[in-house]
Write a structure and sequence with these properties.
With 303 residues, this protein is an alpha+beta fold. The chain contains 6 helices and 19 strands. The longest helix is centred in the first third of the chain and has 12 residues. The termini are far apart.
Length: 303
């Protein structure tokens, strides 16, 4: 399933749980209420409800929801997509593509050697913003606003001290995160403020359930700024694959349903360009991951 959160208009504040299929958005709450089925009405609660909720949703969708049921079916272009959910926590992974390690050592003064274990940092839930929503550029805080297209792993089952062999059993699905970074706000080597400011975690446009993606370690990903390709790679080039990340993180930190792991950025970030390139108000950023879609956000002046 391709799950999403939407409202009926840009000004509508009532978020709804939907499924995207063939350019249509199916409102799961309307379908469930019509069928007399109990189903969570928001995506975070849906993830937390586990396999039973997924099976109930699949049965609803198999019952030809595109029929005459009023209010259940919308054209994708007629709704406003929001961030799929607000994670309990976002765990970012730094330096997880070999070429990005070299690029960062040149431009960001990081270690030139490959890290022996995953490099982890946090992004707060308040950094999350949705498709089409603005990335805030505050010139009082940064002149080095940068992009990073990343595959997002959404946790579906509580994971504590999970082995690599069992890691995939704890995944709900996959999405896209653009790990926005103010490069000039790193503080004594710490990345939290640099990467954690409001709007610095564009997320979406959908969450694709794990069963829909046969091999998440073989997905093309790319990023464009104003239509010009800046990043282009494949998840097979990760230094630490998804199973290793889940095992490493869960060795000392409990992962809960709805948590998100941003699995790292390939090379091609703005800081690594010669000369460096950074985002400014008026820019449009498009992050694409194969089988998931494209996450598009404008950059606006925050002041």
């Amino acid at each position: 399933m391709r799950l999403l959160t939407f409202t009926h208009s840009p000004d509508d504040t009532t978020e709804r749980l939907g499924v995207e299929a063939d350019g249509l958005v199916l409102d799961l709450a309307v379908l469930a209420d019509h069928a007399g089925v109990r189903l969570p009405h928001d995506l975070l609660s849906f993830v937390q409800a586990g396999p039973a909720a997924q099976e109930a949703a699949r049965q609803l969708l198999a019952a030809d929801p595109a029929g005459p049921l009023a209010g259940a079916v919308h054209r994708l272009e007629d709704v406003t997509l929001r961030a799929p959910l607000r994670p309990g926590k976002i765990i970012g992974v730094g330096l997880n593509y070999i070429e990005h390690v070299e690029e960062s050592s040149r431009s960001l003064d990081t270690d030139k050697d490959l890290p022996p274990r995953p490099v982890l940092f946090g992004k707060p839930a308040t950094a999350v913003t949705g498709p089409g929503q603005p990335i805030l550029h505050n010139a009082d805080l940064t002149t080095q606003l940068d992009w990073e297209c990343e595959l997002a792993v959404v946790i579906g089952r509580t994971a504590h001290r999970v082995s690599e062999e069992d890691a995939y059993d704890h995944i709900f699905g996959f999405s896209i995160i653009n790990d926005i970074s103010a490069r000039d706000q790193r503080r004594s080597g710490q990345w939290f403020f640099s990467k954690g400011q409001d709007s610095y975690a564009p997320f979406g446009p959908v969450i694709v359930t794990r069963d829909e993606i046969r091999d998440p370690m073989a997905l093309d990903l790319s990023l464009r700024v104003n239509g010009v390709t800046k990043q282009k790679s494949n998840t097979r080039h990760m230094l630490f694959p998804i199973a290793r990340l889940i095992a490493d993180i869960s060795s000392g930190m409990t992962l809960e349903p709805g948590d998100v792991i941003a699995t790292g950025s390939p090379s091609g970030v703005g800081a690594g360009m010669v000369p460096p390139e950074f985002l400014t108000p008026g820019d449009t950023v498009e992050a694409t991951v194969e089988l998931i879609g494209t996450l598009t956000n404008p950059v606006v002046d925050a002041r």
